[in-house]
């Protein structure tokens, strides 16, 4: 027997890679030049090669070539510390492209960054993006001129023309929303993060020019289901054109305009959309909607047959508006969630609402917190809950309702919850027996 003694004492035949492994390594190293070889592989072989692929490969090579899997997981974990795949339909590839495009847009500086940066990536990512969450929009870099303040000290300031240009120049979403053929959710906030000592109110508001650009973009985006524009200083003037273009939108079911400055005229526009559209969720909390706006929304709600969720927290609807909304629930048969917290309502609204709760069979969650309902309002609600069997959540914190009536309301809510649980258990048992 002849024996070969290796120079490395730790060497053995077990360390010799298989031919299959060598081939996979070769394909991984030369994938940029031999994409056709990778395309011909079986799904199992593609999965086994993904851990070997270099993360520095250009996107135009990997975007449509490498399927969802370990490679895209590695790309995400390399770029971002927090990677919760559950928010992206459990798809690493979707997470990468959505966050990649979001980062490009949020760091885009108008008049400086070349729009080609966005145009180059859109064809690569358009098939994988279903949601965009834009948390900041930058303005053009400031151009200063020297001047003097009231004390004749030399300072640096903006010219009026440049200030107007800055206020009118945000990223234009027209081309982006047109190209994203699978976009279903669009979250947007006109603000700047970490502006520091350079803070200006113009950094935190949507402009008339932005509204015109968005109306054109929304008309082209037929797949949009959820639209959220929050913390952007949307007023009545800007609200109307934005909502007008959504009147006949084929797929929009959720609208969120919370934390803006919408007043009664804007609320009437929202009510018009509610009457003509197919909204299922509407969030207009923390605006400046008064009595007349609330009445317009109540009239639309009375004739609506699609809305299931309405959040009007932190407005100023007062008792007249609260009564109108309560009376609308007598005709509405679809609303399941209603939030009227912090609206300067008193026992007058609570009494009207209690009459509705005795007959309403669809409302599941009611929030009346931070209103001055008092003992009279608490008593009316407690008496109404004796006859209500559907309400399973009722928030009456900080409403000055006394402990006795509060305990009665909470007990009725608990009974309704138990009844719901019993029904659910029975349904599960029936389905189990059927299977």
Architecture overview:
The chain is of the alpha/beta class and 435 residues long. The protein has a domain at 90-233. 44% of the residues lie in helices and 9% in strands. The protein is built from 17 helices and eleven strands. It has helices spanning 19-29, 35-39, 43-49, 59-62, 70-79, 92-106, 116-125, 160-168, 174-179, 208-220, 236-244, 264-276, 291-303, 318-328, 347-357, 374-385, 403-434, and strands at 131-134, 144-148, 154-158, 185-188, 226-229, 254-256, 281-283, 309-311, 337-339, 365-367, 393-395. It has a nine-stranded parallel β-sheet with strand order 1-4-5-6-7-8-9-10-11. Strands 2-3 form a two-stranded antiparallel sheet. β6, α12 (264-276) and β7 form a beta-alpha-beta unit. The radius of gyration is 29 Å and the shape is globular. It starts with 18 loop residues before the first helix and ends with a helix.
Summarize the model shown.
By secondary structure, this protein is of the alpha/beta class. The chain contains 17 helices and eleven strands.
User: What is the succession of H and E elements?
Assistant: HHHHHHHEEEHHEHEHEHEHEHEHEHEH
* Structural class by secondary-structure content: alpha/beta
Biggest sheet details: 9 strands, parallel
Q: Indicate the mean pLDDT.
A: 90
Number of helices: 17
| Radius of gyration, in angstroms, nearest whole number | 29 Å
> What's the end-to-end separation, in Å?
68 Å
Shape designation: globular
Q: What is the percent of helical residues?
A: 40-55%
What's the total number of strands? 11
Spatial arrangement of strands, main beta sheet: 1-4-5-6-7-8-9-10-11
Low-confidence stretches: 143-147, 154-167
Strand content: 5-15%
């Amino acid at each position: 027997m002849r024996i070969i003694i290796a120079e490395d004492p730790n060497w053995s035949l077990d360390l010799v890679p298989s031919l299959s492994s060598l081939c996979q390594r070769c394909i991984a190293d030369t994938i940029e030049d031999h994409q056709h070889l990778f395309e011909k592989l079986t799904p199992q072989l593609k999965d086994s090669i993904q851990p070997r692929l270099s993360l520095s490969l250009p996107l135009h090579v990997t975007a449509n070539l490498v399927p969802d899997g370990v490679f895209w997981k590695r790309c995400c974990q390399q770029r971002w510390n927090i990677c919760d795949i559950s928010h992206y339909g459990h798809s690493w590839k979707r997470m990468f492209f959505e966050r990649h495009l979001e980062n490009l847009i949020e760091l885009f500086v108008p008049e400086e960054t070349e729009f080609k940066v966005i145009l180059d990536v859109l064809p690569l990512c358009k098939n994988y993006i279903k949601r965009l969450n834009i948390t900041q929009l930058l303005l053009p870099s400031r151009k200063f001129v020297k001047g003097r303040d009231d004390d004749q000290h030399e300072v640096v300031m903006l010219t009026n023309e440049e200030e107007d240009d800055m206020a009118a120049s945000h990223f234009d979403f027209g081309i982006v929303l047109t190209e994203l053929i699978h976009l279903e959710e669009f979250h947007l906030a006109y603000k700047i993060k970490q502006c520091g000592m350079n803070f200006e109110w113009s950094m935190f508001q949507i402009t008339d020019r932005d509204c015109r650009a968005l109306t054109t973009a929304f008309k082209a985006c037929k797949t949009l289901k959820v639209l959220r524009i929050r913390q952007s200083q949307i007023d009545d003037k800007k609200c109307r054109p934005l909502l007008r273009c959504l009147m006949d939108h084929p797929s929009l079911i959720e609208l969120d305009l919370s934390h803006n400055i919408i007043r009664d005229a804007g609320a009437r526009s929202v009510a018009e959309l509610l009457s003509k559209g197919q909204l299922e969720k509407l969030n207009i909390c923390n605006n400046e909607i008064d009595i007349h706006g609330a009445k317009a929304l109540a009239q639309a709600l009375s004739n609506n047959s699609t809305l299931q969720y309405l959040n009007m927290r932190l407005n100023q609807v007062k008792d007249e508006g609260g009564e109108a909304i309560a009376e609308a629930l007598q005709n509405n048969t679809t609303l399941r969630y209603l939030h009227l917290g912090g609206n300067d309502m008193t026992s007058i609204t609570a009494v009207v609402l209690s009459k509705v709760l005795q007959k309403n069979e669809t409302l599941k969650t009611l929030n009346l917190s931070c209103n001055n309902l008092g003992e009279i309002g608490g008593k009316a609600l407690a008496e109404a809950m004796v006859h209500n069997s559907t309400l399973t959540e009722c928030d009456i914190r900080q409403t000055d309702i006394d402990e006795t009536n509060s305990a009665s309301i909470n007990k009725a809510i608990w009974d309704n919850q138990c009844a719901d649980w019993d029904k659910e258990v029975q349904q599960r048992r029936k389905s189990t027996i059927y299977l």
